[in-house]
Amino acid sequence: MKDKIVIATRESKLALWQAENIQAQLKSLYPELLVELLGMSTKGDQMLDSPLSKIGGKGLFVKELETALLDGRADIAVHSMKDVPMAFPEGLGLAVICEREDPTDAFVSNTFSSIDELPRGSIVGTCSLRRSCQLRMNRPDLVIKDLRGNVNTRLRKLDDGEYDAIILATAGLLRLEMNDRIRQRIPAETSLPAGGQGAMGIECRSDDSDTLALLAPLKHEETTIRVTAERAVNERLNGGCQAPIACFALLEGDSIWLRGLVGSPDGKTMIEGEIRGHKAEVRSLGIQLADDLLARGADVILDAIYQ
Ligand SMILES: NCc1[nH]cc(CCC(=O)O)c1CC(=O)O
């Protein structure tokens, strides 16, 4: 058995919180084990001011971490499942998906306490096409303005008065102990979350059986089933968190309820769907739901965006 695990991590506050959380869980499971962090800056972090669509490419925030895993400089990388691409480089894979935090989007404002309270013409910050297309659908009168940077940067821009409100993931704010910033946890009916939102996952070398064994107790069964369903939708739609795609699964006993949508960036068209079935079939349910969305017009919307 190994006596040391090195965790490759980005250096944003949220990434560090997540890496340290896994470090603490491993330490409490294995008091003898050394668990070290290897901080690194990724291409996505270095280009925080360019619009995401310009720097392009999925997995902007994970590539450097994966290189460290393949080099053997690190053993595991902790990710927000929302940001993890479907395909892994040869030799790497997802080891476990951990218990999900609140998956909702949060409404954050220094003036208003919910979306409904926003006056006509209010400026709302987000850089997520998924969030903006749903906002535009519900509230065509709002002005949506791009908002980039890590969680702390986005909050500072709100406080500087550039926006009347911003939308962030509830999970990130809870992890950074900024609960008081959350004015409203937006219900899934109003803002359907991104696949994997609120869940952390751990990546490692596929042939590293010692590490896989050490990580096994961190797997959360219910979250794994839900996120696997959501990722099947994204896989079929060929979309990551930069696409106007939302999907969200709930487990009710042995039955899964999976909802998904694809919206046009202008907020004028929204293709929505849902499917229910047994939890053992989540991958095929996710693919069926995606195929249903594609057949009803999501293909046209996504083709225009991926072009
Ligand atoms: N795209 C950035 C990102 N990736 C994961 C989270 C939040 C934590 C999570 O969803 O697990 C965030 C910030 C946000 O969307 O506000």
Automatic annotation (TrEMBL):
UniProt-listed InterPro entries = HemC, Porphobilin_deaminase_cofac_BS, Porphobilin_deaminase_N, Porphobilinogen_deaminase_C, Porphobilinogen_deaminase_C_sf
Q: What class of enzyme is it?
A: transferase
Residue positions where S-(dipyrrolylmethanemethyl)cysteine is found in the record? C241
The cofactor binding remark recorded in the entry reads: Binds 1 dipyrromethane group covalently.
GO aspect biological process, one term? protoporphyrinogen IX biosynthetic process
Task: Please name the GO terms that the record assigns under molecular function.
Answer: hydroxymethylbilane synthase activity
The UniProt entry, under Pfam families, shows: Porphobil_deam (PF01379), Porphobil_deamC (PF03900)
Which residues belong to any copy of the Porphobilinogen deaminase N-terminal domain?
A: 5-211
Reaction(s) catalysed by this chain, per the record, are:
4 porphobilinogen + H2O = hydroxymethylbilane + 4 NH4(+)
In terms of superkingdom, the source organism counts as Bacteria
EC numbers for this chain: 2.5.1.61
Membrane-spanning residues: none
Q: Keywords on this record?
A: Porphyrin biosynthesis, Transferase
Which cofactors, by name?
dipyrromethane
Q: Where's the Porphobilinogen deaminase C-terminal domain? A: 225-294
The GO cellular component terms are: cytoplasm
Pathway where this protein functions = Porphyrin-containing compound metabolism; protoporphyrin-IX biosynthesis; coproporphyrinogen-III from 5-aminolevulinate: step 2/4
The record, for PROSITE patterns, names: PORPHOBILINOGEN_DEAM
What family is this?
A: Belongs to the HMBS family.
Question: Which PANTHER family has this protein been placed in?
Answer: PORPHOBILINOGEN DEAMINASE
Instruction: State the protein's purpose.
Output: Tetrapolymerization of the monopyrrole PBG into the hydroxymethylbilane pre-uroporphyrinogen in several discrete steps.
Subunit structure of this chain's protein: Monomer.
- Other noteworthy facts: The porphobilinogen subunits are added to the dipyrromethane group.
Report the protein name in the record. Answer: Porphobilinogen deaminase
Species this chain originates from: Marinomonas algarum
- Per the record, the gene is hemC
